[in-house]
Structure formats: structure tokens, C-alpha cells
What we know:
Keywords: Endonuclease, Hydrolase, Nuclease
GO molecular function: endonuclease activity
Helix content: 10-25%
Order of helices and strands: EHEEHEEEEEEEHEEEEEH
Pfam families: Uma2
InterPro entries: Nuclease_put_TT1808, Restrct_endonuc-II-like, Uma2
Shape: globular
Strand order of the largest sheet: 4-7-10-11-12-13
Structural class: alpha+beta
Strand content: 25-35%
Protein name: Uma2 family endonuclease
Oligomer: single chain
Number of helices: 4
Amino acid sequence: xxxxxxxxxxxxxxxxxxxxxxxxxVERLPGYRVEIIEGRLTVTPPADVAHSRALNRLIRPFIxxxxxxxxTEVHQAIGLWLxxxxxxxxxxxxxxxxxxxxxxxxxxxxxxPACFRLVLEVTSSNYRADLRTKVAAYADxxxxxxxIVDRRxxxxxxxxxxxxSGYDNHEVYAPGQTVTLPDSIGAEVTLDVAEILKAxxxxxx
Length: 205
């Protein structure tokens, strides 16, 4: 995600539901990302180009090993319905999902978290949400692997073994290291941490 979010709350019984308000904001703010996590409606401005470069760098190894064919697919910015609230949903930057995901639509273009094998976030100004709030949300949804590209602190986080409010296993990697992701995502994928973090750095004139 990019930049600091703005939060909105429904204040009384006559106000629109959070989901209705979210859909109104999507129409009013093209290009912004709207999510509801733990009952909070969050609006995030469009990402910078370095964020996009990091995502593009990450997609390549997933495609190369065939994770966008057969039993799995690779997607950007698709909705994941969360169990943390009646209207909660998140939109990860990148997801690896089961190929039959179309059969598991729940509501509001969001899908059953059971279809998600991996979710990935590339941080920006709102890095705290990716490193804290979403850790609990994705763990509660039982997403097996949560990968965070922390551009602020120049680290790559791999979280596995989801529990009720967090992940039992949290590994942190620095430039100079490589990361082999769990084969539960559908194939063996090894990432070069320095290469990914460098792709996420803004290019200076």
C-alpha cells in the first residue's frame, strides 16, 4: 500500500454502512484503495512508481515457476474477505490464489480467504498498517504466507503458520540474503532480498 490512510467511521444507525460508504468512496476517488479492517474504513492514495517496480520484480519469479498456470493464479489488488468484522475486507498488493477462486466470491468483489495461498504487501508511508494491523487480519483469515517488503527499514518479512491474532513464525531478511518461500504456495520460489528492495527505491535524477 502507499501513503498514510484516512479513516472514516459510521456514527449512527441512520448513516450508511461501512461497506456502502466504501463503495461510494471508490466511485469518488478513482485509483485510491479502500479497505475495511477491524471495522475501520481506510482510504489509501495511489502508490508511487517505485512501489510498482518492486511489485513487478516480485511477480517475475512467481510467473517463471508456473504459479500463474494450472492450479494457481497470481493477481494484483483483488479483494480478500476478512473474518475480523461483518464488513471487513482487504486488498493485498499481490496474491497467489487457487485457480478456482471465481467459485468462491463472497461479496463486494471479495473472495473467500481459504483460496489465498500467499498475500504480499509493499510498504509506503503507512508501513505500520502492513507490519501490524494486517498481520493480525491475515492471520485471522488463516492466509498461510504473508510476505512484506518493508521499504522503510530495508527488510523483507516472511510470516507463516497463522494463529488467532498473528503468525507463529516470523522471519526477517536483509539485503545480501535470499528467501525461499514455503512450497505450500504451489512451487519453490527463491527471492533475492537486495534486488527486490533496490527495485522499490525511488530513482533520483
